[in-house]
Write a structure and sequence with these properties.
This is Bifunctional protein tyrosine phosphatase family protein/NAD(P)/FAD-dependent oxidoreductase. Residues 2-110 form the Beta-lactamase hydrolase-like protein phosphatase-like domain. Residues 151-270 form the FAD/NAD(P)-binding domain. Pfam families: BLH_phosphatase, Pyr_redox_2. The chain is of the alpha/beta class. The protein folds into three domains: 4-136, Protein tyrosine phosphatase superfamily (Protein-Tyrosine Phosphatase, Chain A, Alpha-Beta Complex); 148-253 and 408-554, FAD/NAD(P)-binding domain (3-Layer(bba) Sandwich), CATH 3.50.50; 257-404, FAD/NAD(P)-binding domain (3-Layer(bba) Sandwich). Helix 3 crosses helix 4 (98-108). It is globular and about 70 Å long. The chain starts with a strand and ends in an 8-residue tail after the last strand.
Length: 562
Amino acid sequence: MDIHYLTAELSVAPQIQAIDIATLKQKGFRAVICNRPDGEGNDQPLFAEIEQAARAAGLEAHYLPAESGKVTDQQGRDFGALLATLPKPALAFCRTGMRSTTMWALSQAGSLPLAQIIEKASRAGYDLKGVVRRIANNGRTPVEVAEAEHEVVVVGGGAAGIAVASSMLARSPGLDIAIIDPADVHYYQPGWTLVGGGAFKVERTARTMGSTIPQGAKWIKAAVAAFEPERNALILDGCRVVKYKQLVVCPGLKLDWHTIDGLAETLGQNGVTSNYLYHLAPYTWQLVQSLRGGRALFTQPPMPIKCAGAPQKAMYLSADHWRRSGVLEEVDIRFYSAGDVLFGVNDYVPALMEYVRSYMIGLNFRHNLVAVDGPARVATFRHIEKDGTEQLVKEPFDMLHVVPPQKAPDFIRVSPLADAAGWVDIDQATMRHKTYANIYALGDAGSSPNAKTAAAARTQAPVVAHNVLAALGQAKGEARYNGYGSCPLTVERGKIVLAEFTYGGKVAPSFPRWLIDGTRPSRLAWLLKERILPPLYWEGMLKGREWLVHPELVDVSTPSAT
C-alpha cells in the first residue's frame, strides 16, 4: 500500500482494497475517506466493500466522491469540514491520490499560504502547480498555459488506446504521441469470462501498464478532467493542461453499479457476483463450484454493453460445470434480459437455443434488474409486457450473476464531444468526430453502432491510425470501418459459437466454413479463444501488428458514410 503523508492528521493514497484496512489499523489510522466515485475502473472495489471492512475493524469510513480533475471549491470546503470532525489520523484515497490532495489543498487555501500547500503536497509526491494557477485565476484553469503539447494525444490506455498508438507508431516511428491514462495495470478483459468458468487464471489477464505502452510513446499518468476542443486542449487532474494537433479518444465505458438498488452493498457476498470486475471473476467460479442445487440467476441490462454475449457466456459455462458435476437437474437456471431476443444476430440463435434447452434454462425477456436484497437473496426485476404495462417481479436466488448497466464515462458525457446519449459523436465509417475534424474515437466510448468488443477495437485501430496520419499529411486516402465485431460465445467448456458480424448484423466470418462454421459450436473456435487470442492480443494487437485487419482504403473524394 502506497501511503503519502501530507500532515500529522492526514495521509493520502491511491485506491485501497478492503484487505488493506487491517494494515491501516495497525499503522494507527482511525478513519478513511473515499474520494473516488464507484464504477471508474473494472479493478475498483465498491465503497461498500471498504466501508464494511472499516466498520469491522473499528475505523470510520466516509464517501465524498469527486470526478477526476473536477474538484470544486465546495467539495474542498466539504472535505475540510469532514476532516475536522473525524478521529485522527485519517487516510483519504482516490484512483491516484491526486483528487484527495486537491481537496485538501482547496480546504486549506484560506488558512495556509500557497507556498506551504505546494511544499507539503510536493513532499507527498503530488504536483499542485495547476491547482495554484486555478486558485490564482479565480477558480478557472488557464487553458493557454500548457505543460505539454504533442502531435497526437490518445486518451485511454486500454485495448483501443494501446492498439491505435502502436498502429500509428508502426506506420510513423518518429511520431510525437502521448497516451494519457492513470491506471497502473492493463487488463485483458475478454479473459474474465473464462476465469469465472474455471478455465483461466485471473493473473494471466493483467500486466503492468508500463509494459504495454509502445516504445516511442510518452505515457502521461493522469486522468482527463475536461476537453477544450476549440483550443485543442485537455485539462487533466490537478488542473494541468495538455495541447494536441490530433486527438484520439478511447477511455472505455463506465459500469453503473448504483443504478441497481442494493447491488453495491452486496456485490461479492451473499452469492452475488459479476465477471465484469477483475477481483470478482474468481468469486464467480467459487460460487459455481459450491452450488449443488437451488436457483441461479443471470442478468443482462439494456444495450449497449461491453460484449453483449458475456452474460450468456457466464451462464453456459456455469451450466456446463453443473452438468459435468452431475447436479444440473438440481439447479434452476434462469436468464433475465432487458432485451427482446437471446442474441442480436439471428444466424447464431438456433445453436444457442440448443444449449438453452439442453441446460434447461428458463428465458425471461424484457426483465431489467432494478434491485438486489443480498441478505434475503431476492432480486427484483422490472418486467415490461408486450402491451407496455410494467410490473415488478421478485425472484429468490442462491447465486446471482449481474451485468451492470453501462454508459460513457462521466467526463465524456458532459463534454462537448458527446452526442445526446453521451457517447463520443463520430462518423461510423471514418471514426472522425462529426464536429471537430482533428478528433477521432474508437473502442467502447464511441457512438458507432457496432458491438463493443475487443475485436471491434482491433479492427478500428488501423482505421483511426491511418486517418490520423492522413490528417497530418503522412498518409494518403481514407480508411473505413465496416462495423466488424466478434463475440466468441462459450457454450460449454471446449466449444464456442464464434459470432462475427458487421454493421446491420451481417455475418462476416474470418475463416472458411469448412474450418470454423461460426453458426455451430466448434472445438477449434474454443482453442482460438483459449490459446490463440490471448497472445494475439498481447503480442499482436497491442504491438501494432495488424493481422487480418487491414483497413479498406478509399479515395478522399469519395463521400464519407454516415
